Amino acid sequence: MGQGIENDSPSVQKNTVFNTIRTISSIIYPLITFPYISRVLGAENVGKVNFSSSFVSYFSLITTLGITSYAIRECSLVKDDKKELEKTSSQIYSINICMAVVAYVVLILCTLFVPKLSGYKTLILIQSLGIILTVIGTDWLNTAMEDFRYITIRTAVFQILALICMFAFVRSREHYKAYAVTAIIASSGAYIANVFYRKKYCHVRFTTHMDWKRHTGPIVTMVTMILAQHILNNLDITMIGVIKDDTAVGLYTTAAYLINFVTQLANAIIFVIMPQMTKAFDNNDNEQLNSLYRYTVSFMLAVALPCFAGLLVMPEEILTLIGGAEYLPSAGVVRILSFSMLFMLVGSFFGNIILIPAKREKQFMRACMSGMVINAITNCILIPPLGIHGAAITTVAANIVIMVISMIGKPAEIRLSNVGKIITGPILGTIFVFIICIAFKVLIENVIIRLLIAIVVSGIAYLVTLIAVKDEFAQSTIIPVFRKVLKIGK
């Protein structure tokens, strides 16, 4: 990897590891809890909790729209000046409080006057606590300060606490409200700790002294961008439900879940790199910019390519493991969406890692809105004749559009030299993953055993390949982590 990262910012590697661990724990947590909850509460009460959670999520979205990325960028620029950091943080916090007040007013009115919601008042009250906890937690400040060790440990502690509470207090079907409380502890409880922890950086408080000219334009742009992304992510499911049926929705959402697992993992680096990219753009430090650029590309390739191979070759095995044979009709969707995943990650890279830190968020907004429009139009054309496979194809088209428009907006100072050193290891390793997965698909009859052995063997082969060819990400992060683990083991 480039010298800029290795010498000047050793925390990048550690932060990448910490944030990857946090992302994995957040993905695994529901996989641990759902089997227990679905059995204890039953489908009806799980449905109640999920319905109220879905309802509250719209108001949570209103509250946080565009704030996180904007706050990370702006606080990263002033984090070395405590007075300016306090001023900027307090202004963004105050805007967020105002957005939360609006969200709560609308939420309360809906809960009181929409008949359908009358039976969910207590659940909605419990789950709406996540809105205010997220706002007062100001977790974006910890990200801007690159304190990923704290974020990861804090998240794990509260997830463990939530698990203990769940097993202790959720024991029968009537305990669905207690489960809602444990879900809030897991997702938002950690933000309570932030109220006290953030004082080590600055005192964040509500203020009426606002620099509206500075904040309004970028926040409106990012709100529009996030809304377009949200609509794009949910439009397929909505239109499948309208044009087809609930079974088609279930098949498509299961396939999309697998893809989202990988994209979340590959995108774990975004908030790690964003503060340093923002600072490097502000300082016109082209050497640091390109070192960060190389590191991000090497991480995303190292994570995404082998997963792409596995999803392409073994979707039937994965679907059988997580959902059973009834989900096998969505195997083709998984294969199509695995290509969409690659385009989406490239678009996300250029948008979140380059355009937003470079204050070119309007270009990323145009890209997201264009992708949303393409997705809507092609859904109307392809879903009626092709069903869920048509929806998957439209997602590929939308993400290609987002990727291309985002790439067009790339600043000229961003250059990727000596590409071979970055791509050789992941591509060669991915070829081995393909071969191993195909071989086990032919040689082993039992589906679950086939999948588990393929994961272990191909995973080892992939890591050995990266290390053997001296891949940059392996040299800078994977090998040091192995050494640390082995040292602890001794």
TrEMBL record:
- Pfam families according to UniProt: Polysacc_synt (PF01943)
Q: Which UniProt keywords apply?
A: Membrane, Transmembrane, Transmembrane helix
Compartments it resides in? Membrane
Q: Where are the transmembrane segments?
A: 55-72, 93-114, 120-141, 153-170, 176-197, 218-243, 255-274, 295-314, 334-355, 392-410, 422-442, 448-469
Coiled-coil spans are none
Give the way it sits in the membrane.
Multi-pass membrane protein
| Highest taxon listed in the record's lineage | Bacteria
GO CC field:
membrane
Kindly provide the name given to this protein in its UniProt entry: Membrane protein involved in the export of O-antigen and teichoic acid
